[in-house]
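Note to self: user wants both folds in one dump. Writing first protein now.
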Amino acid sequence: MKLEEEKISFIHENVSAIFPLNLIVSNFRNSISKRFNTVELPELIKEEEKEIAKRLVSILAKRDKEIVYHIESSKGLRYMGFGVYDKEGYQGALVLGPYLDDIIPSVLMEEGEKFFYESITVINKSQEKAIANIVATLINTGNITKSALEEDDRNLGVRRFNYTLDDYEKNLAWIKKMYKTERQLLHYVSQGNKDIALELFNTDSYERINQFNRFPEKPIRNVKNLAIVFNTLLRKSIESEGIDEYFIHKTSENFAIKIENSLTIRELINLMSDMVADYCDLVNEYNTRVYSEIVSNAITYIKLNFKKEISLNNIAKELFIHPTYLAKKFKQETEKTVSEYVNEIRIKEAQFIIMATEFKIEDIAYYVGYNDKKYFSKTFKKITGVSPSEYRKFNKEEV
């Protein structure tokens, strides 16, 4: 890759869209040819950056192109450097920064400097590794395989620290797993499916909390921050379900107060579990409040059992009422037959699974309660306007 402004600008736009980092371009002659600013820095920091960029240019010229080089200044600001190569060899370096790690050095809290350092982004180890590989991919060097250490340098005041990218794949796999679980959990909360949502939450709750470590010396604050984010996600997940905004706001506000008043991690974990349950209850309560008790009970039964063999007769049997009476009441109040309502619930679940997984269409059909793949496809197209395979193709293209 050449050190062309258009390409480097593209790299900066991609990275700064996720994290507010500046990008310094330094050619092999040790001169800074371009600076892309996201965060405005004092002149003193800019001068220090120039020295860091010059040093990185000379260091990276002697190293493997699959190495990212890290420097931490005397002020605790961190930078990462990437060598840029093309057919003609080494062209120079790209330097990203500044940023802070999870532990904010006490020197940063000196009087008069606090405001500046509070504007610097904090990036944890997993995020640091992800950024390194994103930039390496955009430079076209492939994945970063390892990280180099900066030796102590009294002139720059840099200090040595251990860091490796050997476990990048493991970290990436964990991030993907957590996002997948989160999407599933929010989906089932939006459907009011309390049992599955709580099962998903309980499966990874401790692992999620252990990874959320922005303030290592303040574990309660860590978990409170996580709970605040979780409360927001749950609130957003049910906003599209037609629930009155007042009830959503009061539920969210109630949990926000409880979060701040919690004193232990165990109390906060239990509170997050209560969030899942209460948001599910809000969905179910609001979605059935306009119906009679008989129809509300029928809807609840359908939501809990739609993956099984389900019909008007067995729903009526469970509710101890006559099928004909249930069919009439259900149609009057929902403007749908029981069969139509069951199909809508099943297809909505199928849409989520198609987007979230690579499962075969036939397997998804069986999973949501259809024994006939053709009938599933016909019903899917009737409700959504497209076939299951077209729906998957369209959503992949959108992503």
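First done. Writing the second protein, which came from a different request thread.
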Amino acid sequence: MFQGKWRLWKLSISILVFLTAYNIYLTVRLMYSSTCVQTSPDSVLEASLKIEPPECAHNQNFPVTNTNNAPKPLLTSKSNKTLETLTNIYRNLQLNQQYSLNLNLGLGRSDNKLAYKLFDNIIVGERYIELTEAYKTSLAAQSSLDKIASLIESSLYWGGPISLAVFAGTEKELNHLLLYILYLRKCNTRIKEKVSFHLAIPKEKGPKTYVIDEERLEKMDCGNPMGVLHGLLKELTKRGIHAWKYKIPYPQNLLRNLARKNCHTKFLFLTDVDIIPSRGMAEHLNAFLESEKCDGKCAYVVPTYELDERVLFPPNKTDLIRMANKGLARPFHHKVFIYNQYATNFSRWQNYTDPDDKVRISHPVTNFEFLYEPFYIATDSVPPHDERFIGYGYTRNSQVYEMYVAGYEFFVLSPIFTCHWGLQVKKSRPPWREHQNNQNRKQFDHFKKEIFARYNKDPLNMMAGKT
């Protein structure tokens, strides 16, 4: 029996020695493989990444002075491609673990037209689930890199959960977008706690991988968020952000659907990231929605104003009206396109006397007309935003039009409101927006026929002539 145990022990030692020698062999083989010999000027961002790929993990300081005399690679081109794929996966896994990223660009889900890849909850706020349980309404918004800094102010005034869908058209833009999101989370506790981020990218020619410049992230000044953002935007293209938007139209409605479908409260406040809610709105809505019982299909409109950039954000309705009387605030899009918000009836809202700070219905919308596109609160049972409308024009108003045909009623709330910075004029609009608007106008001719066929109703006589 003793001899049997001795033989078993010798066999175990032999296996251990063999495995150790084999591991050493693999390590040396990987050290001298061609995949570690790369310092391409085309991958500056990759060079700044501190995390090494797995095949170079034991070779971080290996000197490569003369690549012509380097040993021949032991791996085939097919093997190199496989290792490159594994390297990207490894790198992304390390990034995900360090920055709480849930993002693998090889996965995701497709939209209905197979044109985009969608990624849910790539970064989740630390208190997002808790806030979802405490509040009745989620703020659902969408943004690209150039507008996302508005999230700082929105998260200051909105106490509930925020679901934000973002878009990146190119790999460089995705790198910058993720970098700025991580910067916001690093510098702003409210964003880190409240916001759940979702991502959409083009499916065919969109980003295939991403890297995060950790050194740059560490050096970004928390006291200068707009300066940091402007620096990133300048790097996207020599001709500026507008040229990029013309080349890759922004899929607003796709992003709106992505944001709202990732909310978990009963009610949604569907908005854009640069539409800033008034202070305490989420808390006031909790009390209102607790007592308000809608028997049918209801949407609660929140009046939206433009603000002169020289003023401070109004703390209440009284101050907002005072600014409006001085010409420092006015209804959203009043000069650019008055029908955008006209049916809200701002005069009636301003003249409504609020007995206290509690949210109430000021009045119903009685003069609904085509192209009305209010920001409203409703359940997610409202019709989805039609994703054929890409870019600008006929995006929100097409969805609101379908709501009206489907029998939804609109009620204006007071004293809450939202604001957009800047008094807008037509000449400030870039030409590419009008081009996209014309393209979507053609799409709407088909859309209105489908709505008529779906509901067998035409309350605005849209079928009688062209829009």
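Dump finished. Worth passing along: DSSP finds 16 helices and 14 strands in the chain.
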